[in-house]
Amino acid sequence: MDIGGAIAALKDGERVARRGWNGKDMWLALSPGVSAVPADKFWARPNRAYAASTESGAADVLPSVTMKTATGEILMGWLASQTDLLANDWFVLEGQ
């Protein structure tokens, strides 16, 4: 599948990966946005301070694509390379 199919699958709540990632158990997921997150729920000090400074004491968090890395961490805000964009080896992982 191409990147368009992968994005559609992410929007449907699926995890996707590329065969070209050499089987390192890496995958992508779409983290949904959240409205009106209270300042005390932000773990990054600058984000917490910004949310606290707003009239509501909260801030909206936008959706983002996250990656489960080969070393077992979750990377917030994954960006596609040109190779990723042009690849036709995307697939949906079975089982959540």
From TrEMBL:
InterPro entries associated with the record: Tad2-like_dom
Matching Pfam families: Tad2-like
Domain Thoeris anti-defense 2-like: 1-92
Protein name as catalogued: DUF2829 domain-containing protein
